[in-house]
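Predict the 3D structure for this chain.
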Amino acid sequence: MFERLLQWDQDTFVYLNSLGTERFDTFWVIATEIKSWIPLFLLFLLLFILKFPRKKAFFQIVLLSLFAFFITFLTHLIKIWVKRPRPCNDETLNSFIRILKTPSDYSFFSGHAASSFAIAMLTYLLLRERVKWAWIFFLWPLLFSYSRIYVGVHFPLDVLVGALVGSLSALLFYKIYLRFIAPLTK
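Done. Predicted structure below.
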């Protein structure tokens, strides 16, 4: 069964990656760069500052920052433990797939997917009552995560598991925030 799952993952990757065209390469290469999303992060900061009292906004921004470090560290540990090669470094694939990026570290699970879904989910949970359109924050991780398949550096399961780990971690951090931090901000 595990072999069938990995084969599906590889086949799905090849299909999705092959949908790419030179016409859209620049867009997806820009979309996959973390620095391209700095304006969104600044928007998040601004929303916290505008929508909450200063002390509460400060604690939420610190929580998000610590959370980003946590999810990055967790992703790094899992990648080292699992040691799954990236599609761009897999000799059975790299001769017939589109490769636009070539990182040399491991693939499972996607740190881009984990961190973007984690930050979007936690930001959504913290802002949803004060920003009615906060659901739109999830467009970022969807684009960011798909870009990893497009540029040839992650399999779909890497992205799906990263999104799941990031989202569940955000829920956990949100529960911790409500239990231990939110009472301090009143």
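The chain has one domain: 2-185.
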